[in-house]
Specification:
Elements lengths: L4 E10 L2 E2 L1 H10 L4 E3 L12 E3 L13 H16 L12 E7 L5 H4 L12 H9 L4 H10 L5 E5 L4 H14 L5 E8 L3 H9 L23 E9 H7 L5 E10 L12 H13 L9 E3 L6 H14 L5 E3 L2 H4 L6 H15 L1 E2 L15 E2 L5 E2 L4 E8 L3 E9 L1
Parallel strand pairs: 5-6, 5-7, 10-11, 10-15, 11-13
Antiparallel strand pairs: 1-2, 1-8, 1-9, 3-4, 7-8, 9-16, 12-14, 15-16
Helix pairs in contact: 2-5, 6-12, 9-10
């Protein structure tokens, strides 16, 4: 039973707004995060836009773009949870950050370098700084926490996987506080890779639309402060939501394509419901993975039809945030938390002709005020990664 793990802090750095209030306003109003790419020359490419974070980050934060975004989100989450800018050194704290690309600058900057600048002393130092774990360690150093710091490389399901790890760590009492979430900076490798796979939208991203044509590559970070409910109540802090259940699965079908029947995502959803001690009728909203790509959306609709109650409302916030890679699952979990708090569901912006056959209710046009007891957040990624989390009203 996992009802005693709660969220007491939340921080967001997103393409539609930085800070929780701005992020929610961006989702609620359909503010698009896409803009012309300025960090690389796209003149000879067929795509020129991405969903990037406009607000400046603190350049004094050591590390790459992903670390800087994660630290900024963690600072907001800690303040929200009543910790100020730091956690007492005696508190057992785990930092778990999901990511797809990690820090990629040390690779990307050297792609066009001459021999004198490839694997010289400066380049070697950057490789060392970009080793696995560097994003979580940047958060750990910034807040003064002591304990485990782990980057989870779980492709585009990584943010939800980080929450699943947090749930287990708190239930097993391995630690008392977990800073968990996801982070990725804009990556030239991801941008060109998705373009070469022909998965990037020409204009607006339209998840679950019959005429969808792809996604927008994005960046961002979302960090949660999680703790056991009894500890949160003893501290007298506000509980934003409950992390009621989580599950992660894998499948070995194809490096980039999901299994046609959605086997991995099906098992993840059913596992998350089981660990939450819920069934399909308890879910009032689904934040779908919903990338806007032809195969993913079709398979996810099939999975939701099979796993959830007919008529359950669902949407994809990637229509405006873009696909923020390893941050996506965590960012969409944040959208679920805010939907629970505000009792408001966000539609899939740009959705005109919902994909059929679909037994669920595709949310379109405007936000909806309604009762929301529990929300399901789906994530899937290259390499057969799948994860799902259930979030419940505080």
């Amino acid at each position: 039973m996992s009802h005693n793990v709660v969220i007491t802090g939340l921080g967001v750095m997103s393409p539609v707004g930085c800070g929780v209030d701005s992020f929610w306003d961006g989702l609620r109003t359909g503010r698009e995060g896409r803009k012309p790419v300025t960090s690389m020359d796209t003149t000879e490419l067929i795509r020129h836009e991405a969903c990037t974070v406009s607000e400046p980050v603190d350049d004094d934060i050591p590390g790459g773009r992903a670390s800087q975004l994660a630290v900024m989100a963690a600072r907001e989450a800690l303040a929200d949870a009543g910790f100020g800018s730091a956690i007492d050194a005696s508190t057992r704290v785990s930092v778990t950050i999901g990511t797809t690309m990690g820090e990629t600058e040390f690779i990307e900057d050297a792609l066009t370098a001459d021999a004198d600048h490839w694997l010289n002393q400066e380049h070697a130092q950057r490789i060392i700084q970009g080793q696995p774990g560097c994003i979580a360690r940047a958060v750990q150093r910034d807040c003064g926490a002591m304990g485990e710091a782990v980057d989870i490389y779980g492709a585009c399901a990584a943010g939800n996987i980080a929450l699943a790890f947090a749930l287990d760590a708190l239930q097993s009492r391995k630690c008392d506080i977990v800073l968990a979430g996801g982070a990725d900076g804009f990556s030239r490798l991801a941008f060109i890779g998705f373009m070469r796979l022909r998965l990037m939208a020409a204009e607006s991203c339209r998840p679950f639309d019959a005429n969808r044509d792809g996604l927008h590559v994005g960046e961002g970070a979302t960090v949660f402060v999680l703790e056991r409910e009894e500890d949160a109540r003893a501290r007298g802090v506000k509980i934003r939501a409950r992390l009621a259940g989580a599950a992660m699965t894998s499948e070995d079908y194809h490096p980039t394509r999901p299994e046609p029947n959605g086997d991995g995502l099906t098992r993840a959803i059913l596992g998350a419901l089981r660990t939450a001690d819920m069934d399909a009728t308890d879910i009032d909203y689904v934040n779908a993975h919903g990338t806007g790509t032809p195969q993913n959306d079709m398979i996810e609709v099939k999975v939701m039809n099979n796993c959830l109650a007919p008529g359950t409302p669902f949407s994809s916030t990637k229509a405006v945030t873009g696909h923020t890679m390893g941050a996506a699952g965590a960012m969409e979990a944040a959208a679920c938390v805010l939907s629970l708090e505000n009792q408001t569901l966000i539609p899939t912006w740009h959705l005109n002709e919902p994909l059929e056959p679909c037994e669920m209710e595709a949310l379109i046009d405007v936000p909806r005020k309604t009762g929301v007891r529990a929300a399901l957040n789906n994530s899937a990624g290259f390499g057969g990664y799948n994860s799902a989390v259930v979030l419940a009203k505080a």
